[in-house]
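Supplementary Note 3. Input sequence used for the single-chain structure prediction.
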Amino acid sequence: MRLLIVEDERRLALSLAKGLRAEGFAVDVVHDGREGLHRAQEGTYDLIVLDIMLPGLNGYRVCGALRAAGSEVPILMLTAKDGEYDEAEGLDTGADDYLTKPFSYVVLVARIRALLRRRGAGASPVVRVGALVVDRGARRVERDGDEVALTAKEFSVLEHLAANGGDVCSKADILEHVWDFAYDGDPNIVEVYVSALRRKLGPGFIETVRGAGYRLRA
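The predicted structure, written as discrete structure tokens, is reproduced below.
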């Protein structure tokens, strides 16, 4: 899952990004409302964490512009304000949830996961592919009833394949959703993680479609 954090408190933004990356998310960070709107419109994100008090454009205007353009990406708003009016304004502009600073990091992660679970059928918490079970909520994988231990990044690659329901995912698509926007390393890193998954899951689950990418199959 790829997240965008739009937060002008740099220490907070970088701290959140570090924690969420450790949870297995790909995270991009910007500190300005205009840049956040541009990045949200140009990129493909599964969720946006959006502060309200931002330079350039405030969070209300960023959220409103995205909704006016037809974007349905889940938006979790953050603010130092507190009060029913502020919360109502945020939700009225199209935000999906609202969290007041200071907040618990554990609560933030729980809210993010809840919003991701509410999305369409592709975000179903549990995906079954033959003998393979991918529980996206618990971040747990089982094969023939036995748990398979994966690293955070391995799980993210597998999760993205599972979310696409057997459709082919190109290396570029996997990079975009699993690695950060700023990643400029070798794109063959995808092959490294697919090979690691094959060793742990066993043969047959991840199919290579020559010239196109990878997909899960029963």
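The radius of gyration is 18 Å. The first strand starts at residue 2 and ends at 6.
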